[in-house]
Amino acid sequence: MSENGKMVTIYVLGKRHVVPADLTMMKAMEYAGHQFRRGAGCRGGFCGACATVYRKKGSYKLLGALACQKIVEDGMIIAQIPFSPSEKKTYNVSDLKAEANTFLQYYPEIARCLACNTCTKACPQDIMVMDYVQAALRGDVAQAAKLSFDCLSCGLCAMRCPAEIVPYHIGQLARRLESKYIEGPTEHVLKRCAEVEEGKYNAEIAEMMKMDKPTLANKYNTREMRIK
Amino acid sequence: MRPTPADKTFRDRVKELSGENIDLCFQCGACSGGCPMTEEMDYLPSKVIRMAQLGLEDALATKTIWVCTTCFNCEVRCPRGIDIANVMESLRQLVLRKKYDRISLTDLSDEQLRTLPQVAIISSLRKLTA
Amino acid sequence: MKVAYYPGCTLKTTAKEFDLSARAASAALGIDLIEPPRWNCCGTVHALAKDDVMHHLAPLRNLLRVEEMKDQGLVDEKRVVALCAMCYNTLKRSNQAFNTDSDKAGKVKESMNNEAAVYSGGVEVEHLLETLRTHGWDKVSARVNKPLKGLKVAPYYGCLLLRPRGIGVDSADNPKVFEDLLKSLGAEVVDFGYKQKCCGSYHTVYMPEVVADLGNRILTQAQAAGAEMVATACPLCEFNLGDRQAEVLKKYPRFGSIPIVYFTQLMAVAFGLGEEETALGMNKPDPRPLLREKGLI
After folding, report:
1. A108 with B121: Cβ contact below 8 A
2. For every one of its 130 residues, what pLDDT tens digit does chain B have, with 9 covering 90 and above?
3. Number of domains forming the structure of chain B
């Protein structure tokens, strides 16, 4: 039961259910008796497994959401998309260049983009999908990577695209190219690795290996936390 | 190739989709004279317009409609003001809209996709795929 | 003068020399070409089918961006300059369709209605050649400090700059804007009969032999008329007439190669700008030997 006892009516795969109003779509579907074997993952809005499409009674609009995040609304007509068919191309990032023609080589269908913005409308993460696909098409890899940062590869954009593009593959390639060729190696990580290889931490580690569990636990709980 | 009353629907579709009044064509051939691609065509542009006028769906089976480059030389030359390139486009659309792709992306090599100018890849996909 | 400038995908990737030289040459004339902060591919070809709405979204979206630029004070007018002839044609035609067909405009607005803004129809689309003509050929000549003396250039218009009627930058039967530009730079203009003949356009992707035939015809005519160089205003024409010369040579072994450049590159040379601005190293075949011979670079 919800806190104030309020219930709403939803339709799952066409069948009517009355569910508590404060549940997420995922919890509401489970409340209604559905068991998730596919289409559920982290339940925390991060993995993109629970891509769901829905309409609301009285509105023609076709909307997309992550079932684990979106709270139910009265009149929702729900269907899940547990898998969005797509082919990720095989490539070795080390052999590629951060330019438009790399995208055209592996995903030439990107040239069919109509700039209709349907992908952006479908995205549950409010990402400017059309903009990042267009950025890739004109070789602005940094922009494509930046705009697609929050992408979970849930597949809702790919299902709706009239040009049959799979935007999340483009975003993924863009981010990989950007981090390798534009950002470059992270200096502080390389520095720390060098320190480790030089043996800077060997003495400390040796000491900790000798500690018993209570001492180790105490050391951990009373450690100095420096948040920059 | 005798036209029948049923063929009129095809003709109306062409006129509707292109917005051109193909009935105005009196077969002067000026369009064919200015067309840069006639050597690759099986029927001259003016002949294809004639087929459309007669409501013959054979126009859809010609190589001509796919070889057209939409250069609008015909539109400029036509003494009756018909945009023949537009009519060619509507004939292509009538075929493409039935899920027909004239070209396939898989025919292009990696090398080609890496070096061709984008305007070429994008325009050929727009013109020749469903 | 700050004016909105739509580069198009190709000018940002395989035709960078057109973009670089155009911005530098225009800046030299006091015309600041400013790209919209956000733009998308225009689609390259105009959607001719009368019932088509979807394919107009891409070009009209770009015009909306230009409107936003004017509202934000980034540019002086609701006007956009295009360089690529195909982009110019597509943007202009979609704009025209939107402004003359209220039914279509209504449908376009409906499909954009839950986005932040909707296009009003008020942007003017022009090609850089028109911008220069309005600016004044005398002003262009005044900026020339290295006249292209002795350089015999044939202007190649191609198709989409002049056709269909009502869209062209000049008369489809007897254009002169490109010739006027070249004259203002001090070049010797070579007129030839095939300056408006199609280069083969998108057939370069799947039928390069056909493009080779057309290229051969166009360029041998230009050479027969006395041209040493051909100037163009479209990256597809530049590719078909330039890069594809390798294909022409395969079919016609007696073909004599001839350099192809963008008109903005000639402007940059005539204005005495540097190597980065003229960007002549990116053209195929290389135009630099001829220009060095003429003492222009």
Report:
1. yes
2. 666 655 668 999 999 999 999 999 999 999 999 999 999 999 999 999 999 999 999 999 999 999 999 999 999 999 999 999 999 999 999 999 888 889 988 888 999 998 999 999 999 999 998 7
3. 2
Cβ-defined contact of B126 to C55 (cutoff 8 Å)? yes
Pairwise CA distance, residues C53 & A139, whole Å: 27
Spatial CA neighbour of A143 closest among A174, A111, A180, A176 = A174
The CATH number assigned to the domain holding A128 equals: 1.10.1060.10
Shared domain for B92 and B109, answered yes or no, is no
> Up-side HSE of residue A161: CA atoms within 13 Å toward CB?
26
Task: State the smallest CA–CA distance between residue B4 and chain C in angstroms.
Answer: 26
Containing structural domain, residue B31: 5-98
Is some CB atom of chain B closer than 8 A to the CB atom of A120?
no
In a domain, A193, yes or no: no
Q: Give the CATH number, domain containing residue A41.
A: 3.10.20.740
Residues B118, A104: C-beta atoms closer than 8 Å: yes
CB pair distance less than 8 Å for A137 and B115: no
- Residues of A within 8 A of C41 (CB-CB) are 113, 115, 134, 137-138
Integer angstrom CA distances of residue C279 from B111, C20, C244: 24, 7, 20
Q: Among residues A93, A123, A119, which one has the least CA distance to residue A106?
A: A93
- Residue in chain B closest to A105 (alpha carbons) equals B113
Tell me the CATH class for C2-129. Answer: mainly alpha
Secondary-structure class of domain C138-293 per CATH: alpha beta
| Contact assignment for C48 to B115 by CB distance below 8 Å | no
Residues C94-126: tens digit of each pLDDT: 999 999 999 999 999 888 877 777 899 999 999
Angle in degrees, CA C246, C249, C251, rounded to 5: 115
Regarding whether B16 and B36 lie in a shared domain, the answer is: yes
Range(s) of the domain holding residue A19: 7-80
The C-alpha of C114 sits at a distance from chain B's nearest C-alpha, in angstroms, of: 27
What ipTM was assigned to the predicted interfaces of this complex? 0.90
Rounded to a whole number of angstroms, the distance from the CA of A24 to the nearest CA of chain C is: 25
Domain with CATH 1.20.1050.140 in chain C: 2-129
Q: In A141-201, which ranges are continuous DSSP H helix?
A: 141-147, 156-160, 167-177, 187-198
Read off the pLDDT of residues C127-182 as tens digits, 9 standing for 90 and up: 999 999 999 999 999 999 999 999 999 999 999 999 999 899 999 999 999 999 99
Does residue C258 sit at the A interface (CB-CB below 8 Å)? no
Angle at B89 between CA B83 and CA B94, to 5 degrees: 130
Nearest to B36 among C51, C204, C214 (CB): C214
The minimum CA-CA distance between C133 and chain A, rounded to whole Å, is 29
DSSP string, C229-278: EEEES-HHHHIIIIITHHHHHHH-TTPPP--EEEHHHHHHHHTT--HHHH
**How many separate domains does chain A show?**
2
